[in-house]
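Entry 14. Structure prediction run on the chain below.
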Amino acid sequence: MKKILLSVFAVLPALAGFSCPVCEKQQPEILRGITHGAGPNSSWDYVIVWSAVVIVLFTLYFSVKWLIRPGERSQTHIKRFILNIE
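Output returned:
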């Protein structure tokens, strides 16, 4: 029973991602079969989405980079002051 429920919960979200035939007719060719609803209203929609993708990738790159190697080497940096308080 657990395997059946787990299978249903694993497959159900994947099925929700497919578009219905009515929505498929409204989508541009590149998005057909992927999304529901009306397609983009103008070319500006693509510009907005791709700008957001670039911003997210930019922030993700620098977040990971500075998380792995912060680069503060100075002994007078504020983190040294906080870490050395006794």
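The helical segments are 2-16, 21-26, 43-68, 78-83.
Filed with the rest of this week's runs.
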